Amino acid sequence: MLSGLGWPMLALLALAGIALDALLGEARRWHPLVGFGRYADAIERSLNAGSARFWRGALAWALAVIPFTLLAVWLTRIGSAGLLLHAILLYFCIGLRSLREHTQPIAQALDCGDLALARQLTARIVSRDTATAQETDLAKAAAESLLENGNDAVFGTLFWFAIGGGPGALLFRLANTLDAMWGYRNERFSAFGCVAARIDDVLNWLPARLTALSYVALAATLDDKRRAWRCWRTQAPAWPSPNAGPVMASGAGALGLALGGAAVYDGEVEYRPPLGAGRNARAADIDRAWRLVVLTAFCWTGVFILLGAAGYLSRRFW
Length: 318
Known about the structure:
By secondary structure, this protein is mainly alpha-helical. The chain has one domain. It has eleven helices and two strands, in the order H-H-H-H-H-H-H-H-H-H-E-E-H. A two-stranded antiparallel ribbon has the order 1-2. The protein is globular and about 55 Å long.
């Protein structure tokens, strides 16, 4: 693995990073990813002008991501403090608890019939318009966000941590953040953000499919598993994103929900390909989507532990 860490140490550091996330949650002040977003904004404002915007975007991506990644590589090689930094970087990059904290209040507001509050809370996590959204629309948006971020903010981060330790997780999250900021197909970003979008596609390709496979495997019943697999194979190709499609289609199928479809963006209704099959989403389905995401994270953490134990035993007895 690129980090140079053996599986036993990697498993311990992964558990430490996940434990920090569970205990502390998202940093309320001075979160590194928030600071990175401001730094990336400044780079974009400086470079996204004039001609050759594709190459300007490539330069912007390199200036935004490479220095921090190289710094992380250097710092993690400084003795025992460097080992601890692997866990700290994973803590800052993974978003398991924050997914819960951002979506559970939406479910609670819907349960209490407070549609205005639910609309306000949902608008914080999705880019679609929520001013006239009803319960089904809000529950659908929250469930889709949970399923997609089950890869982007959780498993994808764990995957690249397994490959490259803390710097690997950092590289993935910074690239994913830039895709979220610059990866739009509009006049401002279609050329400038192309490199950011394509790099994120590459980094996410395998993690997204492992996440989709996990959603299939962890579906509650055999029928649910079959439906999740069918939705993945038939619906994902129609989705604009090559990685979000498999993740959300399999997750929606596993939950027996009909997601996708109509959504309002900038005052206009857009019709997106269907995701999953079954009934419309309700408030309770937000918690069901969360449980599927957290179960996926626990299962892959268990894989880390087993690999770590196997690595330890192989060194101990052979």
